[in-house]
Amino acid sequence: MAGIRNSRTRVLTAAATVALAALSLTACNDGTGTVDEGSSTAASASASTGGDSQATPPTSTSASTPASASKGTAAAGTSGSSTSSGAKGSSGAGAKPTPAPARHTGGTGGGTGGSTGSNKPVTCEGSTTKMVAAPLNRPVNHMLLTVTNTGSRTCYLYGYPALRFTGAQAVPPVIDDSHPQAVVTLDPGESGYASVNLSSADGSGSYGHTVKSLTVYFQGRSGDWNAGKAAHPALPAKGVYIDDTLKVTYWQQSMDDAIDW
Known about the structure:
By secondary structure, the protein is an alpha+beta fold. The protein has helices at about 1-30, 35-50, 65-90, 255-260, and strands at about 120-125, 130-135, 140-150, 155-165, 185, 190-195, 210, 215-220, 240, 245-250. The longest helix has 27 residues, at about 1-30.
């Protein structure tokens, strides 16, 4: 009986050995007759680490970077770009440039920009001129008006003076033929002239009388008589004699042109 049991045990042992061998060949054969040692190594490594399947990141940066690291890099890049943009903003659009000096409409007389607004020519009028009324010996019965620019700017004498003697209801007419070729221009300190025919030389005039005060109005560029203040030149103490032949010349640049009429 003991011999039978020993024989049966050997048979069972041999059968188990054959079965294990068959199973080992089935598991290890990858179809090419070679054994995949990597699989067994990975399995062994997994077993040795207690089943943790997370792989160690590759040391080479040329390999694919973990997603978290990629996001971190992108975020850092964005942050850097944002910082750069902020720096530009603080030194560019964020900071207001110093305003450029205001540009004048012109410079002084010798400057590159022409005349400034403060030196721009104006219309001559009573507040920036001085006027003298002086009777003349020749031509007879004539009076010379001399107006001098006492201001700091060049001024224009437009048209002719409008005279208002004591009690006059209207200004005397102008001598048309005395019209100058250009507007009389007075730089500071310069003078312009007009002559007044007070009365007829042969006594043919009517309504003759003596006047002792005179107001002179300046004409504006548009022809009106409201160009600033009027002038009030003094007349001789005894006054001057006028009649209905009273008339006046246009303003002239020279005295000779004024007394020629």
